[in-house]
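Pasting as-is:
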Amino acid sequence: MSATDTHLAELGDVLRDCGLHCVYQPFIDLDTGTVLAYEALLRGPSGTRWESPMVLLDAARAEGRLAELELASLRSSLTDAGALAQGRPVTLFVNLEPSTLTQRLDIVLGALAERAPHVQVVVEITERALAADPAGMLAGAERLRAAGCAIAVDDVGAQPESLAFIPLLRPEVVKLDLQLLRTVKDPATVTVAGAVRAYAEQSGAEVVAEGIETQDDLTRALVLGATLGQGWLWGRGERGFAPSAFRPERFTARPIGPALHATPYGLVGPRHRVRHAPKHLLIPVSKTLELMAVQAAVPPVLLAAFEHARYFRPSTVQDYTELAAKLPFIGVLGVDMPASPAPGVRGSALAVQDPLASEWTVVVLGGHTSAALIARDMGDAGSDGDREFEFVVTYDRELVTAAAHSLVGRLTAG
């Protein structure tokens, strides 16, 4: 047997023989010093090279068994929380890759359904794959929330452009990348922290600083706006659960709700005054929103619905190609819209009967930016520029976010 075959056989043995276990690292309330939750950290058989979670994850990823490994870890941690906590209520963070969330969600939900009633779960995912399938991620997160699980996003700030996806996914917990703790005076770090702080203030999300090892680190975490901390200052991870304060309201799942299946115009409420105007007068508004996007300190996402692909004209293709080079994500929708209508732009085709097919919307949403043009075609004849629309221009973050959700929910995976 070759060394590779032996390597794979050993991985299979670890998975088959339940050689996996988890240790548990606490989350500390930075204001009170109280333990509020624990994160399950995967380990393999003690005293072997498989004890390292990185060795396990790298091998499982290479052999297409990552979901199998994560599900084994999930079941192990849920069993521990049910037994080792000795009946005390506990909040448990578990880790899942985005691919497991979107491709094996039914199995994940099955495992979660078997958890003990005193175990509250927060599902933690990394931010690095949000752009690959934002619609799938939103749909998966909603099903987890329906099962009572809040969502945490890990490594936020590792790639500053990923901050644009935080308002879209709307996690209940944001975990700052641990390197930010070492670069508190860097303007880029201050920008990331400011965007996360703005999101947390608007949404009520918890902000976690990882890697806290000293009192100085703790002070830096407070400067970054963290409400919770993790790190060796409080422990490297133990097999058991020490007594903790149970504050379920701080980790309550908050579903996005019906916005995922609505249309932007359908979300306009009575406090948003609707006006009428021809398209040629609204085009400058659209271009102003696009300019706002590229000038933002924290680049936002740009989402647009064009009714039909024929309105995504060559001049628009050129404009959006230039925008895609500067923004982290652009998604456009319309009847007959191709999957790649312009370089770097994600396209998604609408059904003719979709109500969105009669709407024209441009949404800019990011850490510090929220604006939208939301318009509905009034169906009159005539030249394209003279077509009349009912419209709203809004900077209301709640409405802009809901409009973004309604568009992202229709995007196909890249």
